[in-house]
Design brief:
81% helix
Length: 436
């Protein structure tokens, strides 16, 4: 009890109220209003889910829908089911142990392995930030008609302002990021209503797995790589490790169940957004014979003559919000990675300036932004095994997880997911760099 009181005293007022309400709910057997009981626990999964609707997803989903119609809708659904399981395990690790995934790697792996993993994860964080930063800059360019470099400067300033919310505790940042995820979802709900897809075909391809040649397999691998993000796995465990601290078995299991609900809701919204991206591309570009649409800028330009000016503006707004929110979350994930692996911490504005340097260099060099986005997703593929495999190893160990250790079936399913992710991303890397 003394530890809980000390923790509450150290929190910001909004955070303290949230934590106290959550502890009261965990300690009460009264049912009450389900939504009201759930509210204090919502937030961490929404922050992690931003990684699943970032500009890299725009690039892969638009290409998939334009080239193959509704065929790959099932890939998005399967990818998000995988992501739900992985994110749930990540959250459970933080809840059960009070340490995040990077800290567990530091504690349990040899130092040389830790340093190698840190370098790889920093490269992943930079590749992630490149995609997100470029996406937001493109969003500013599409909406305001300004040069890409000016959009990049606006992106840097905007993300620093959003990150400044952390000074007021975790709750304000959770609220803003959740609102941005909601806005992205609203934009794509409107896009879906405007483009009037063939819902019979959508339903069929959602549950009937199909491929059409090597290129469709390659795009499916790219969709998976853009969906299951390594930095989000590290971040989610950190978001949960000290948010609500309980140690007795009953409260731990109750907290875990609330977090599962958080993950299902947040990742469900992310799944809808990803599916809506592909459905929009299929219902507009593929249906019109524009199967060669391969860049975000082409998609934006083509939407107006096909669907009207409102669709073009909604698309641009969703891209901008996705880029800003995911860039903010990516910077936070970079902080977690450095602190976890090295016990080092640098000011967030320094990390923001360092990680945006490659993005500014790419823009200044005049490289194709969409192609750069796709390549950045390939780079992320290198990092996935180094996040997913340790997560499965740690969450199956009773000496680490205690009462929240994985059941055998959960571990087997998670191991299968890890194998699928690694194999598909290995295939993506092979096709990109060897057979391409």
């Amino acid at each position: 009890m003394a530890r809980t009181e000390t923790l509450l005293d150290s929190l910001k007022p909004s955070d303290s109220r949230t934590v106290q309400t959550a502890l009261d709910i965990l300690g009460s057997r009264q049912k009450g209003n389900r939504l009201a009981r759930l509210m204090p626990f919502l937030g961490p999964a929404f922050i992690a889910s931003v990684a699943y609707v970032d500009p890299g997803n725009f690039a892969t989903n638009i290409q998939g829908g334009a080239q193959f119609g509704y065929m790959l809708v099932w890939v998005i659904l399967v990818s998000n089911l995988m992501a739900m399981l992985i994110q749930t395990l990540s959250a459970k690790l933080g809840i059960a142990t009070g340490l995040n995934l990077a800290e567990h790697c530091r504690e349990h792996f040899p130092k040389p392995v830790v340093y190698v993993m840190w370098v790889l994860m920093e490269l992943v964080a930079m590749a992630t930030d490149l995609a997100e930063f470029l996406g937001a800059a493109i969003g500013f360019q599409l909406l305001l008609g300004i040069p890409l470099f000016a959009g990049a400067i606006l992106t840097a300033l905007s993300t620093l302002l959003i990150l400044g919310l952390e000074r007021h505790g975790f709750r304000p940042l959770e609220a803003v990021i959740s609102a941005m995820v909601g806005l992205i979802a609203l934009c794509y709900l409107l896009e879906t209503l405007i483009d009037k897809p063939d819902w019979g075909q959508v339903a069929y391809h959602a549950f009937v797995p199909q491929f059409s040649g090597t290129e469709s397999v390659l795009l499916a691998s790219g969709i998976l790589g853009a969906t299951v993000m390594p930095h989000a796995i590290f971040l989610h465990s950190a978001l949960m490790q000290g948010r609500i601290v309980v140690r007795d078995k009953a409260r731990l299991q109750s907290l875990y169940r609330f977090e599962i609900a958080d993950v299902v809701i947040a990742m469900g919204i992310a799944s809808f957004v990803n599916a809506a991206m592909l459905i929009m591309a299929a219902a507009t570009f593929y249906k019109s014979g524009l199967t060669s649409i391969s860049t975000i800028e082409e998609a934006h330009r083509t939407l107006e003559p096909l669907l009207g000016s409102s669709a073009k503006w909604i698309f641009g707004l969703s891209l901008l919000v996705a880029g800003l929110s995911s860039s903010t979350v990516g910077t936070s994930a970079g902080q977690v990675i450095m602190q976890g692996f090295l016990k080092r911490h640098i000011p967030v504005w320094v990390r923001r300036l360092v990680t945006m340097a490659p993005s500014l260099a790419v823009i200044a060099a005049g490289l194709d932004p969409t192609r750069t986005l796709v390549i950045s997703q390939v780079v992320l593929s290198f990092g996935l095994p180094f996040a997913v495999i340790p997560l499965v190893i740690f969450t199956r160990r009773p000496d680490i997880m205690g009462d929240l250790v994985n059941r055998r079936g959960t571990t087997m399913l998670a191991a299968l997911v890890a194998v699928v992710i690694v194999v598909l991303n290995a295939y993506l890397l092979y096709k990109t760099f060897v057979a391409g």
